[in-house]
Amino acid sequence: MRTYNRETKDIHARRGESFAVALPSLPGAGYTWRVDAGAEFVQIVSHTVQPGGQAVGAAALDEFIFEAVHEGSTTLEFRYGRPWEQSPAETWRVPVTIENHA
């Protein structure tokens, strides 16, 4: 399974394939990532937070696992912030192209 990050310019996957997106976060300060997925083309399989260290407030990785379900193109929009704040501190968008199994 391929893993993508903030340096990724676009994602290409085959229908039926899973892929991951890992983004740095600070969950101890309340900052995590949320995503709007093009549900017609990809489905979120899981979202976990991987600790980055033992220290209190240490950075972590938000890891999203997606499954490519239909051919086509969409954009994943990730929003970084605290859930209780109205505006995200940061937004990251990445285009996704799902191709047939061929």
Query: Helix share of residues?
Result: under 10%
Structural class: mainly beta
Strand order of the largest sheet: 1-3-6-5
How many angstroms does the end-to-end distance come to? Answer: 18 Å
Oligomer: single chain
Described by strand count, sense and barrel closure, the largest sheet is: 4 strands, mixed
Mean pLDDT: 90
- Portion of residues in beta strands equals over 45%
- By DSSP, the count of extended strands is 8
- Count of separate DSSP helical elements: 0
CATH topology: Immunoglobulin-like
Rounded radius of gyration (Å): 14 Å
Unreliable segments (pLDDT under 50, ≥5 consecutive)?
none
Structure, described:
The chain is an all-beta fold and 102 residues long. Helix content is 0%, strand content 58%.
Question: Can you give me a brief rundown of this structure?
Answer:
This protein has 102 residues and is mainly beta. It has strands at 2-4, 11-14, 18-25, 32-36, 42-51, 60-68, 72-81, 90-99. The mean pLDDT is 90.
SSE blueprint:
Elements: E1 2-4, E2 11-14, E3 18-25, E4 32-36, E5 42-51, E6 60-68, E7 72-81, E8 90-99
Parallel strand pairs: 1-3, 2-8
Antiparallel strand pairs: 3-6, 4-7, 5-6, 7-8
State the main characteristics.
mainly beta, Immunoglobulin-like, single chain, 58% strand, 4-stranded mixed beta sheet, globular, 102 residues
